[in-house]
Sequence to fold (468 residues):
Amino acid sequence: MMGEFEHRGKWWLPAQEDNQIDGTLTYSPTDGATLELAGDFADPSRAIGRQGFSTARLILGTTASGKRITLLNCAESHRSRGAAYGAGYATSSYRADVALVGTHFPNYEEVTFASLHVHYSHLDAWSSFRYFDHAQEEGVTKISYTRPAPTVAHLDEGVAVSVTSAGSEDWEGSPPRRVTIEREARIGIRIGEQAHFDKFLKPMRLTQIFLSLGVGTAVHPLKVTATREEMLEDVPVPQQVESFYQPPLAVPPQRTVLPSGMTFTLEDISDRFEPLLRNWFESAELLVPVVNLYFATLTESGMFAEHRFLTLARALESFHRRRCGGQYLPPDDYEPAYRHLVGAIPDWIVQEHRDALRARLKYGYEYSLRKRLTDIFNAHESVMRTVFPDDTAFIQKVVKTRNYLTHYDEDDRQNAAIDGLELHRLATGLRTLLEVCFLSEIGFTSEELRKQVQEISSRRVIERIEYE
Fold:
């Protein structure tokens, strides 16, 4: 993960370089970027709380070692004044969304880059780049090193996503006594010739979840490096800028995942990387809320089994609603029935209860969870039979469990999954079903999905799910 650091230096607002303040910038993936200043950028005559804390789109700084840093979207979180130095010695703190280490920007609109490169967790294993080959012949060891060619997908709106590698080569001695070659896989993102940093965030996120589907667990950015050109004596020179920000979700410890244990790898899809990624980007536009629910269940390693189950059930329900709609009849046709049902509510029921019944009846034309899950199973019947011989029993168990956990209805308790292991297996089945939906959206065939589901089931140690 992006490593922790601390930088002491001078800090100022754009166009106010003559008002530099001593301060310390600290960063950690858990807490993000925080700037502690021995002063503040506010009007000294303004009292705390009178007009609230200040904000700044940019704060610039130069560290004691000469590094240039730009902080984006800064909000003051603390300010104090004492009487130690006459008029008062001010201190203040700012939280920044992003810390860009390597350059200064004169204003927010000019925070632009030619490309962004991200090294994600598990990406080296997923890409399966073969950098070295070796052979031994009559006591001679021959080692060959090859830089892998990038795999590129050209998408809409000028977005290009590539899987490539970067690293270093060090030669020691003359003649060389030691050669050190280090390489790592990374995802490159370009948006036309140059784009604002904000525009890279969406393709970064969608690519991250695409990789998570392939790896079979959540992947996270470990290093984010942006490239821009700066003029040095009228000559454009590529400038590397490191980006640090607080991940939106907690990053659990990373376990090793071998390519053989992944849903799919780059090698599996190298000949159709572009169409599959294009399908994913297009589908994700509609399915963003579903994708976020799914990704949360991968990332939150401490999530309770009940929460994971309910989140996945809601994700599948949302997927069906967004992809298929799902209505017993159109809303206009349901309106007469709705009025009739509302009119049948007894007058003796209190107003608050009447309002609650009206709210529940308002969307009575929409499919139930049972109906939505049945439709999804039917759409992927040949695939899901490898794990769910009896989908009706599985769906019954899901519905009863959801109702019991949501409404705590004792009538559902007997048929609900309340044992921890059974609830885990039920949630695992829902996750597999949701992933089949996603992979189908991306463009995997039914035959490919059957094979993948069998392997997924084996890796997740879920037995063939059968319910009486």
User: Anything to note?
Assistant: Residues 273-299 form the longest helix (27 residues). The chain has 13 helices and 16 strands.
